[in-house]
Design a protein that fits this description.
With about 220 residues, this protein is of the alpha/beta class. Helix content is about 15%, strand content about 25%. The protein has 4 helices and 13 strands.
Length: about 220
């Protein structure tokens, strides 16, 4: 049995929220990234963007307070921060494509050592290919961060030498936040920003199967 404890989804979301700086304009992708909104420090002014047309999105509402006319891009009910704006879909994508986002937090199927991202299609026969706004978010933001489990259900690393799935963006990922630790693609290796307590660099390297170096 391993002598370390993996981050839960909430702990992973909290870890990402810790690194978002004051004044940042941030998009949270569908799935695990949306949980980051629930952990943003109250003493920091951080503006959340949703690609379906919200600037100033707040966290999920309390149970019973859902308004399904107010949802994020994943069709989950959200709240609005004070001063929030509802904008046209075209304006929302202009924010994404125009380089106005400081950070996008996305999920991933694979990330390469070079920072390539594959997060929209695995090639499964019954899957519905739909890249949506992921391509715009991955390459349009000043910094793209990934939130994901490090390993697949079969125990294979999702951080790879080269992506085997169709790419969403090339050399766009700056950080990969996982249940095992936080990594930064560096071309010929992965820089290790942190590891969960009890997990050694040598053990992490066995799991990932790629060169790791302490950041």
């Amino acid at each position: 049995m391993p002598n370390y404890k993996l981050r839960t989804r909430d702990e992973l979301a909290r870890r990402i929220a810790m690194d978002i700086p004051e004044g940042a304009l941030v998009n949270l992708g569908i799935g695990m990234p949306t949980m980051v909104a629930n952990h943003l420090p109250a003493d920091k002014e951080i503006l959340l963007h949703s690609e379906n047309g919200i600037v100033g999105m707040g966290p999920a509402p309390a149970k019973g307070g859902e308004d399904y006319d107010l949802i994020n891009a994943g069709k989950q009910p959200v709240t609005l921060q004070k001063g929030a704006s509802i904008v046209h879909h075209a304006d929302s994508f202009a924010i994404m494509r125009g380089g106005h986002l400081d950070i996008s937090v996305l999920g991933a199927f694979q990330v390469s050592m070079a920072g390539d991202l594959a997060n929209w299609h695995t090639g499964e026969e019954d899957a519905i290919p739909a890249v949506g706004g992921a391509m715009d978010l991955a390459v349009g933001a000043r910094s793209t961060w990934i939130s994901m489990n490090l390993l697949t259900k079969e125990g294979q690393s999702k951080i790879v030498a080269q992506c085997g799935y169709p790419l969403t963006g090339v050399a766009c990922v700056k950080r990969v936040y996982t249940d095992h630790g936080t990594f930064a693609p560096a071309g010929d290796h992965l820089a290790v920003i942190d590891l969960v307590e009890g997990l050694t660099l040598a053990e992490a390297q066995k799991l990932v199967g790629l060169p790791l170096r302490a950041a």
